[in-house]
Design a protein that fits this description.
alpha/beta; six-stranded parallel sheet; 10 strands; Serine Threonine Protein Phosphatase 5, Tetratricopeptide repeat
Length: 763
Amino acid sequence: MNIVVVYPRVRVAEANSMSATDPAGHASLAAAVRDHRAGRLREAVSAYEALLLRTPNDADLLQLLGVALAQLGRHAEGAVRLARSLELQPGRPGVLLNLAQALHTLGREQEALRACESALALDPSLAGGYRTRAAVLTALGRRDEALANAGQAVRLARQDAGAHADLGAALEAVGREGEALECFERATTLDPNLVAAHHNQAVLLARQGQHERALQSLDRALALQPHKAALHGNRGNALKALGRLPEAAESYSLALALEPGNPATLHNRAVVHALLGKHTEALRDYDALAAQGQESGADLIGRGAALVALRRYDEALAPLERATKLLPGEAEAHIQCGMALLNVERNAEAVESFDRALALRPDVPEVLNNRGIALTVTGRLSEALSSFIRSSVLDGNTADTHTNLGIVLKSLGRPLEAATSFDRALALKPNDASARFALAFLYLSLGEFARGWPLYEARFDVPALGNPARRFNAPRWRGSEPLSGKTLLVHAEQGLGDVIQFCRYLPLLTAQGAVVVFEVMPSLEALLATLPGAIRIIGRGEPAPPIDYYCPLLSLPHALKTRFDTIPAPVPYLAAQPERIARWAQRLRALPGMRVGIAWQGNLQVEKLVWARGRSIPLAALEPLARLRGVSLVSLQKGPGLEQLRQVPFADRIVDLSSELDSGADAFLDTAAVMAGLDLVVSSDTAIAHLAGALGRPVWTALNASPEWRWLLKCDDSPWYPTMRLFRQTTAGDWSGVVDEISAALQALAPAWPVGNRATENV
């Protein structure tokens, strides 16, 4: 809010220049002056101009026209007429004062000052002269002199409300706010209709934090002048300070209706929209500022923050990076930039942004928490742990912080401490889905299924998983309802590997007399048709028959009360088609030595989740396997990751079947048939590993340092897949030790078969 200076009213004097010998002219002039005094300025200007055509050197007419033009806002034209009037008839203090006011409005302060001084030299009792000179001196930054002139104006006109208002403005300018407020109150007492005094009083009250009183003053001013944009804008500021955000937004909108495109008001409304969570509306205001070329550094931050809130992270980076250059000392710019970078997976840069923010605003809990997330993703777990701990001991003692702390502790192999962190998160927020899901992961990893399965139901409520609970026109089956003669729809969820692992439960349901309908991804329909039992397979999106119950696939272990020692693990429970096996066996037979299938890359989208990060192996890391004598490597990789075959120098030592493997609905059947012709499958944590395990094929699975719960902790075998052997990282991100261990184990199994004798050209 800015203090409003109350300028003296432009004087409208009678003109006596029309001769008594020109009664018509005199009558026209009298009518023009009446229009002028009544505020009909355009009519008055037209009449004055017509009269001047007859007497162009009439000083009084020129004065009247100059004043009317200034009152219409045509200050430059008004100044010209007033200056001409003074040339014709100098030495008139009133005209000099009017000229000073017009020049001041035009920003021609030195000329305005000279006109004021000339007026006061002629008439030192002219209170308006001191008021105008005070305004001019204020504009020139000469505040003490301005205060002296405003004080003199009050001494000469003690009952002039405008003079008291001006004195208040001058006192406020030199920091004497208490006295200024008294002047504004005196002005409104003398003239309750003086809008500027009410406005100034509101400005000062707001500055002192008295927002309720400021709002009252603004409402009085608006009752007198409802179409003044600045009043609505300042009312919005007061309402915002009082936390009445919807009303503040409405006031800003009214101000913008009266003064469209005002940069300050657009900015303020954008801020309020953001606080209300109306980020689309906030962005619209910031875009309007950008279109005007009026976007400040603060606006760039606001626009970037709105885009971050709308999850338009790529778009957010441009304004935020500009903001960090314009305002390198503004922590919020670095915070929002870090958020955008974190969400576009430029994690190392996100850490740098958060570090810059913390250098400016140390120990901000939210920033420390987000920094910890970025550090976790980049594998800097010890630093992430420190960041989360710092956040938790500050005001960041939140469920999210303790959940993140627990995830890192689990990844660092400290499960008991992790459980304590998850418990703290749930103590703060008992139904927090993320904390429940993370604790489920921990208990399941420890084999404590009785505690883990109920918590695992929280997976449907964790937004980051993108796995919302589905609803069907039937009740949910929870394990206690009899199934004999009932139709139960089981629907697949999560990834392909999950479906392959947990479809083993469906024959248990048919054994209870259920008619089982299994809804799956279309790519798995043909493979899952090989499940034992009369199970009806339908593709996702196909109409389902009438059902009595439904159950999500990964809720079956909970419903059936699976414990560590009751995992249904007979394999194989899936099968390849004999004709496909025969066709591929003929092709694979030509490979010398031990035939080993390899897969290295999983689902890239899934690996964005914190518990799945880092589970894929770069193909380049598998080079030691390609150097083994007596081993033929066969790529089972399809889709993402296959491009790495063109990037490694040992690609010629890997048989690539991707172009020949079925890529349609029978893709997994084709892969299953190839596996039947292999001696071993080596895979990272992918659907390929699950498929090999479900087929009962020998499979070695390479796991990162903090794998998913299903692989438990530390063991080198799997209760889910009897034919599987597990190889685990000992250092996060380091695959060399795992590959060396696999290579040594393979070398012990493989016959001595020179690499150069492979007849790969026949495969």
